[in-house]
C-alpha cells in the first residue's frame, strides 16, 4: 500500500514538473508591457519575472515617446509598434498604457500658438490633450484643420457629423504693415479675426485636460 502511494506521489511530482517545463517553454518569451506616460514623459515597465532585453525596452521607450507626441497616433497604433519591436527580439507582448487619465487613456502634449483662445489659453502655453472622440459642447479641443494643421478651439455646436469650433478671443486684431509700391512707401492696415470654423467630428483629436 505504501509503495502504491509512493508511486502515485511520484507520478504527481513528475506531472507537476512536466507542466512547469511546458509553461516555461511556451511562455518564456511572452511578457506584459506597461507604458506609463503623463503626455511629456514615458517609462516602460515589463511585468515578467524573467529577464527582458534592455535594448528592447530602450527601443520601446524611444518609440513610445514619439508616438505619444504624434497627433495621428492611437492606442492601437502604439500597441502595434510595441509588438513590432518585441518581435525583433523574439518576444510577444501585451501592451497597456497608463496615464493620469486612467488605463489605456492616451495623452498628447501640445503648445498653443497665437492669441485666439485668450484669456483661457495664452500664446506659447503648454497643454495636455486626452485623445478621445468623446467630447461635448463647451469642451476645448485640438483638431485637424485643412489650412492651419492643428488648431485649439472651443466646441460651440455639434450638428450630426460636423463640429463648430470657435475662439474664446472675440477681438479683431489690427496691425499695420509697411510695403513699397513703385518706390512709394505705403502703410497698410490689416485686420485679423480669430478663426471660427466647422470641421468633421473625425478631425477632433481630443479634449484639452491640462492647461
Question: Can you put this structure into words, describing what you see?
Answer:
This protein has 211 residues and is of the alpha+beta class. It is 27% helix and 40% strand. The chain contains three helices and 13 strands; from the N terminus they run H-E-E-H-H-E-E-E-E-E-E-E-E-E-E-E. The protein has a seven-stranded antiparallel sheet, with no helix packed on it. Helix 2 runs antiparallel to helix 3. The chain is elongated and about 75 Å long. It starts with a helix and ends with a strand.
CATH architecture of the largest domain: Ribbon
Poorly predicted ranges (pLDDT <50, ≥5 residues)?
10-27
Q: Please report the distance between the alpha carbons of the first and last residues.
A: 76 Å
Rg measurement, Å? 27 Å
Number of domains: 2
In CATH, what is the homologous superfamily of the largest domain? Umud Fragment, subunit A
- Determine the strand fraction and express it as a percent band: 35-45%
Fraction of residues in helix? 25-40%
Biggest sheet: strands, sense, closure? 7 strands, antiparallel
Using the alpha-carbon principal axes, give the shape. Answer: elongated
How many runs of DSSP E, i.e. beta strands?
Answer: 13
Strand line-up in the sheet with most strands: 5-6-13-7-8-9-12
Mean of pLDDT: 86
Order of helices and strands: HEEHHEEEEEEEEEEE
| Number of contiguous helices | 3
CATH topology of the largest domain: Umud Fragment, subunit A
The CATH class of the largest domain: Mainly Beta
Q: From the helix content, strand content and strand pairing, which structural class follows? A: alpha+beta
Amino acid at each position: 500500500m505504501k509503495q502504491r502511494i509512493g508511486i502515485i506521489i511520484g507520478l504527481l511530482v513528475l506531472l507537476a514538473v512536466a507542466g512547469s517545463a511546458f509553461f516555461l517553454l511556451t511562455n518564456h518569451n511572452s511578457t506584459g508591457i506597461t507604458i506609463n506616460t503623463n503626455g511629456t514623459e514615458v517609462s516602460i515597465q515589463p511585468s515578467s519575472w524573467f529577464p527582458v532585453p534592455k535594448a528592447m525596452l530602450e527601443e520601446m521607450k524611444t518609440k513610445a515617446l514619439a508616438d505619444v507626441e504624434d497627433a495621428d497616433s492611437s492606442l492601437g497604433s502604439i500597441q502595434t509598434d510595441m509588438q513590432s519591436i518585441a518581435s525583433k527580439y523574439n518576444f510577444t507582448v501585451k501592451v497597456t498604457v497608463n496615464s493620469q487619465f486612467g488605463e489605456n487613456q492616451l495623452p498628447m502634449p501640445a503648445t498653443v500658438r497665437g492669441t485666439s483662445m485668450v484669456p483661457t489659453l495664452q500664446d506659447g502655453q503648454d497643454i495636455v490633450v486626452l485623445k478621445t472622440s468623446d467630447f461635448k459642447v463647451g469642451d476645448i479641443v485640438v483638431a485637424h484643420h485643412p489650412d492651419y494643421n492643428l488648431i485649439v478651439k472651443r466646441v460651440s455646436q455639434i450638428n450630426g457629423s460636423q463640429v463648430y469650433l470657435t475662439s474664446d478671443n472675440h477681438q479683431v486684431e489690427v496691425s499695420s504693415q509697411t510695403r513699397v509700391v513703385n518706390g512709394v512707401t505705403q502703410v497698410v492696415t490689416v485686420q485679423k479675426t480669430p478663426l471660427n470654423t466647422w470641421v468633421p467630428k473625425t478631425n477632433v483629436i481630443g479634449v484639452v485636460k491640462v492647461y
